[in-house]
Amino acid sequence: MSFTLYPAVDIRDGRAVRLLQGRADAETVEHDDPVAAARRWVDQGASWLHVVDLDAAFTGEARNRHLVRDIVGATDVPVQASGGIRSMGDIEDALGFGASRVVVGTRALEDPAFVADAVGAFGDRVAIGLDAQGTTLKARGWTQEGGDLYAALRTFTRMGVARFVFTDIDRDGTLGGPNVARLAEVAQATSARVTASGGVASLDDLRAIAQSHERVDGVIVGKALYAGRFTLPEALEAVTCH
């Protein structure tokens, strides 16, 4: 099974940023031009990108969708689009401008029946984002509680979800290392594929994630790349050679 590393491009107020544990008041600007940031990762060998509209995630207002579209147009790799996907129209728009996969978070937690409709219409081009603090899911930019992690895994797996994007909020943006044990438990609780997110700080972290469970086949990396903890080529080699 191939393992995919997704460099993250998180967009807020038109710039590429990183947040600490998803907090809007703990922002670091990484690049004034998200499209240039995306191109840099592709130039260094990325085979996928994970692009998030943070303004949409917090407010539901897709202020940066044109930049997500521009990234799709400016790169020649598949883009996984996330942030503020709240309707079938939002999914159609993202897929329509060329995103290869769309991650649904808040709407899935608030309206589980929507997931069945989305999977029925778009199949494995829809993934479900499960962002958890402990085993409690968080919604609306991680500002509201959204139910139990494992209950959601059971429900959405029965609906035919092909992929979950699991983020450990307590680790996200901290460079404190991933919660590999929790990640393995999540993968064990579903028959779907799982993409990991949150806490990566070293090449050893990447290797541990790649070896955590047979259904964990991808990892999203943001701050560690921007902070220069390792290069993208080094990261790609680490997950390829696991």
What's the arrangement of secondary structure elements?
Layout: E1 4-12, E2 15-19, E3 27-31, H1 34-43, E4 49-53, H2 54-59, H3 65-74, E5 79-82, H4 88-96, E6 101-104, H5 106-110, H6 112-122, E7 126-133, E8 136-139, E9 144-148, H7 149-158, E10 163-168, H8 180-188, E11 193-197, H9 203-210, E12 216-221, H10 223-226, H11 232-240
Parallel strand pairs: 1-4, 1-12, 4-5, 5-6, 6-7, 7-10, 10-11, 11-12
Antiparallel strand pairs: 1-2, 2-3, 7-8, 8-9
Helix pairs in contact: 1-3, 9-11
Biggest sheet character: 8 strands, parallel, barrel
Radius of gyration: 16 Å
Could you give the order of the helices and strands? Answer: EEEHEHHEHEHHEEEHEHEHEHH
Please indicate the count of domains.
Answer: 1
Strand order of the largest sheet: 1-4-5-6-7-10-11-12
Strand content: 25-35%
Output the CATH homologous superfamily: Aldolase class I
* Unreliable residue stretches: none
Which labels suit this protein?
242 residues; alpha/beta; TIM Barrel; 12 strands; globular
